[in-house]
Amino acid sequence: MSSDTQNYFPQPEETLTHEELNVEVPTEWPRFLEDSLFESTTTELAYSMEVKEEMAKLAVLGVMSTACQGLFDVEYPDSNIKVPMSLMTCTVAGSSERKTTLKKWTDQPITDFEIALAERRKQQASEAHRLYKNWKIKISALEKALSKAVTKGSEKENIINIESQITELQSAEPTTHKNIRIIYKNATPGALALSLYENFPYAFLSSSESGNLLNGPTFRDMYIFNSIYSGSTITIDRSSQPSFVLHEPRLSICLMLQPAAMDRFLDKKGREANDNGFLSRFLFIRPEAMAGNRTNERPPIAEHVEQNFYSRVKELLSKSLSSFENGESRQAIMFTSTAKVLWKALFNSIECQIIEGGIYHYAKEHASKLMENITRVAGIIHAFEGYEGDISSNTLEYSYKFCRKCSQHYLEHLAEEPEIVTLTNLMVQDIGRLAEPTYYGYRFKKSLFQQRGNSKLRKIKSRKLALDTLEKLGHLKTPSHTGGDYEFRNTVWTTNKPEIKNGEEITISELPLWRDQALVEVDNRGRYFPERIITSPDLGFV
Fold first, then answer.
1. For 456-505, what is each residue's pLDDT tens digit?
2. C-alpha angle with apex 378: 355 to 89, nearest 5 degrees?
3. What are the structural domains of the chain?
4. CB neighbours of 511 closer than 8 A, spacing ≥ 6?
5. DSSP SS3 for 246
6. Quick check: 290 and 244 in contact, CB under 8 A?
7. Which residues pair with 448 in a beta bridge?
8. What angle do CA 395, 400, 404 make, to 5 degrees?
9. What is the pLDDT of residue 5?
10. What's the maximum distance between 2 C-alpha atoms anywhere in the chain?
11. Which pTM was predicted?
């Protein structure tokens, strides 16, 4: 969230659980409404091109944000704070993951719009040139008449009349149409900002092979992109050329690059990009590889799906251009009353996870931008789908789930490992190394780790954090009395869903993921066991 909104709500005293919010971070990527443009398009793309669903969703969202950003802003609940609908997205995937194919399809309606617009502008330019030429002739004739009248000492009224005609004609100077460009493949920050200033202030920086882009001069001055992301008016100072003021620009960014290129960027500029919040503004994914797991049948994309998506993009772009040329203001989209309550609860839930030991403790910049990205995605989906009224709680809930999945990828691949994850993994290792084995798992007393445990777990605060996390994950039973034994097992104990699910809010590599566990009945008692164990032919339960 931008700096002026980070303290919009006070720090809550305790974390709201997802059960209290009635919103869970999903194990798999969430799905929006089946008949929506967004869901039908991304599902069709993923199926036809055999790419990961989240990869299709992020590419489509980038285009949707570009189509909407010139017409709408989103207003925070119960405030006058408005944020743009622009998005910055980044997909890291290998060379055989069909990034270029996917990007070409999703960007095509913007390319088509630019081509059609350029053709119209070419025809208009000829007429504009003719009008301008005639205007110059009239101005020249009046200036000659004025010069002649002054030289001959004509009456004052005659001179004033000629001057008045010149003034009136000068105010009616024919305007030439600006060069409307939306998609940029490569540009330095200064050149991009100047183009937004001189021509059209709504743009899309898009590339399916962004390695050279990210590691080259384009992102040399990351602060410019941070400023444009906020959508506020910014001043661009230049030493060799005149400075200029860029009023409320809108820029969506959609980068796709290979892992080696991202690693190169992180090695070179990772610390700077994290410290200044540049990377925190991105919705980031690093999907599992599809290469080697495809059928390669490649059915064509349904014609009506393509037509509906392309038409909607072009319609919104056309309205954006018309609104800009007519000097119209963007429409502020708000949340319903129910969605406002949910928004505040989600905001507070994320804020609580920034505290020491929380999953965002070492990714504060990312957490501060997370709710803003959730808000933007909700606004984009609402506007692009053409929904009437305010943003619903259902749309907000989907946006939260989607952005939290992106956040998992960010934490895993871009941020430092949270302390809570490090300590919990070490505790699981120490339990296996030091605790007393039982039929179900292990038994131990808390004091076991005080002298013999990993050095990072010898502090009472660290041990408590790790043990509390294991309990919330459902793998640990605390003793019923002081000095009693703790009981640990690799699988979840309870028939109820744990407070935290492994692989969702956090990922503890030493434990099985929640998605790999299933509830089975054993002697009329429900227990969760990893699915890979359930399918084992020699499995025995007690």
1. 998 889 999 999 999 999 999 988 887 789 999 988 876 677 888 888 77
2. 75
3. 18-116+179-413 (3.40.50), 420-534 (1.10.10)
4. 428, 473, 475, 490, 502
5. strand
6. no
7. none
8. 150
9. 42
10. 118
11. 0.78
